[in-house]
Amino acid sequence: MKSLISALVLAGLLAGCADTATVASIEDRAVPSKDAAKPSATSTTSATTAPGAATTAADAAKPAGKPTSIVETRPMVEPDTKVASLGASQGVAIGPDGKPLAAAGQAGTAGPGAAPVLDPKNPASPLAQRVLRFEYDSAAIRDEYRALLEAHAQYLKQEKATKTILQGHADERGSREYNLALGQRRAESVYKALSLLGVADAQMEAVSFGEEKPVAEGHDEEAWQQNRRVEIVYEGE
Amino acid sequence: MMHRLLLVVLLALASPLCMAAMTIEIVGGALNRVPVAILPFSLSAPGATDPAVVVSGDLGRSGYFRLVDSQGVVSPASPQGLSLPTWKSRGADAVLMGQALPAANGRIEVRFWLFDAVRQSQLAALSYTTTPAGLRGVAHRIADVVHEKLLGEPGSYSGRIAYILKRPGRYELQVADADSENAITVASSPEPLISPAWSPDGSKLAYVSFEDKKPVVYVQHLADGGRRAVARFRGSNSAPAWFPDGRRLAVTLSKDETSQIYFMNPDTGELTRFSRGGALDTEPVFSPNGRWMYFTSDRGGSPQIYRAELPGGQVSRVTFEGGYNVSPALSPDGNNLAFVHRRNGKFQIAVMDLNTRQMQVLTDTALDESPSFTSNGRMILYATLVNGRGVLATVSVDGAVRQRLSQSGDLREPVWGP
């Protein structure tokens, strides 16, 4: 019994210790790679920050003006072992140079100088309504979204240069890849609805984020309902 | 009823500097554990850490072994100095002893001997030469040898795993040893990274990145970190799986209609459409002999696992029990299929014997995902959600031994490396 208690105490100590050591060691390793990719879009850009700014900063720093990826990679140097090439040394950080990786093309800010009623940037506009929610394992559009879809269709038909990305999402249950496909089907269902309302294919793209971008972080039906959705996003946003 | 006992064993792993990335708890175990004494190695090589610590960690948490106390004992200078009757009287069926000796150019020679204490015979004697950085790898190899000699089937302690670590505002693709030590972040992004897939030779990882505000399939070479988008078509690009020959990939694309499976050569860009029809097809994975492709489809009205005989042949349904079976994974011998099965609203890991088509649910958690087999085919690695946080876990194919690996981060989508 005594040894069990001491084992638990030891384990507790180690767990605490492991936590801090892990954080520290990962941060330590991240430093050189950030330096190599300087100025790092990754370190300063959070997931919600507009990527346009980061891309510009990175591009300005690059002599060739090549697009820079927001993703950092790191080589895995195998140890010099005769019997096993397992594990890896701490590795030298390298920048993400060398490979042409297009940073999200956020260019064409084709100004929608449209009528004030149909302005996606105006919170009072019907176009401020961007989210359609779905039932579990379903891609059927509910009747309540008819007006929302008609407003966006009307706007897109007026503004032929404007493009929209229909982003499908799923709740967290089940497999990530199946949820990606499910979100894709939801996005395609909105795509078809807008297409039937006369929007040109060239103005739309249906993509999916699966369960990766929840708006509600909970693990219950209330959160799941909010996360099963399609968001209508205009290019440049 | 062993797992009812909830044997929680927390092992102090690895170096004294608390570099252990994860602690491991065993939530179940085999009924008959083999008692084995692992003596601290005699260390005469400067800077060598004791391989016995790593071997003890590997075997102790496997659920198949019971460690006989050998604290304070040091391996004798030679096997002749070992008293097997003494260890037998202490309850050990087997004894491991070893040495770490200095070798040329700063390298280290590790020698070990494994004895059967009951029959008083030698089971193994081997020597490895490595660098200090390779010492842990050697220790995992030793654990593999001990496992195989004592249980008659290969161990899987010297493997590698890849998984996604979710940090606040950042996603990291990491590669680590099977005991989750030596974790290296090979790619890191503010946007989600999902679906890592090892190339059969272990030199590359394919994965899906959302850095372009949509899912795009990338292939990354682990040796230099170089990466390339191999599928960036209109719509979504996802679910990469390597053909067994490592030359082609199966991917799920939505460029033509809803999510469908395509075969592609990432070097030439050559693309062949595999599936057709309005149903959703995804999560392709190949049997090791390349004869079958298993995948998830909702063509029957609910997501189920199907398989197609290659090339491009007949499709037949594999799973029938329950309304949700996804994420197929094949054992190395191709005889077992692991997948995620929904039962009473819970998503759990199940395994099917493909010869008898018998299915067994192996876990009792609610949000399990991403099963993959260890290299010996005896365990299934997967991720589950505990207290709202993703953790990695393994379960033996018979459901008897379960382990949970926990780290301070939020972990997902582990995949066992070749």
Keywords, separated by commas or semicolons:
heterodimer, A: 237 residues, 2 domains, 6 helices, disordered N terminus, B: 418 residues, mainly beta, Rossmann fold, Neuraminidase, 5-stranded antiparallel sheet, 31 strands
What does this protein structure show overall?
The complex is a heterodimer of chains A (237) and B (418). Chain A contains six helices and five strands. Chain A has 237 residues and is an alpha+beta fold. Chain A has two domains: 1-74 and 90-105, no CATH class; 116-234, 60s Ribosomal Protein L30, Chain: A, CATH 3.30.1330. Chain A has a four-stranded mixed sheet. In chain A, helix 4 packs across helix 5. By secondary structure, chain B is mainly beta. The longest helix of chain B is centred in the middle third of the chain and has 17 residues, at 135-151.
